[in-house]
């Protein structure tokens, strides 16, 4: 997909972070936008920040609610007539050991980070397949490629998004549909602020300390992340890595598939 002008782009998690930046970039290129988030105030702030003059629909949506997502899909189709691009971007963070993680926390993150992607994909897929060209872009994480302690729940969800997306890509390879999987490294968003951060990867830390550590390590802005994603879509890239940290960790995992965890643990302790 070389041009986004007049394309109908559906973006979940558009109330902040990468979702907001994607909306801003696509708006500037003349796309029509269907924006959703569980945070209505954030959506309104996103809408107010847009520079383009194209039509924008904002909807409060909990992506973990299948019926709500299916109803939202029909709302978008009724409003715009069709959809051309779907960015399954909504996501949350959780940090806890396997032993101490509650089932409620585990189900919470899986319902949003994995099932939200499934619901979005399943709901919009039949409509996207009718378009001359279309795209599904699922946001995984570098933690969908590498695993670290206290991140088992987040790893499980993001590895699942990666596998789901790569399988879907093969199923639709002879169609009009581009399918991309995005693996961001540390992005300067509020994901840790809004997450359930019970235990740190480097030992006992308060939520405030974890936010401070994340902000030190997150070096990529949402705007740069959004620009990288859209560049990847234009080039039909199957896997889109965002940030030098993501590229480094991807290479490290490829070179040392059994030893990368020890190397990364040493780096994290050194940086903290």
UniProtKB/TrEMBL annotation:
Keyword Oxidoreductase tagged: yes
Highest taxon in the source lineage: Bacteria
UniProt xrefs under InterPro entries: NAD(P)-bd_dom_sf, Sc_DH/Rdtase_CS, SDR_fam
Gene Ontology molecular function terms on file: oxidoreductase activity
Signal peptide annotation: none
Keywords, alphabetical: Oxidoreductase
Family that this chain belongs to: Belongs to the short-chain dehydrogenases/reductases (SDR) family.
Protein name: Putative short chain dehydrogenase
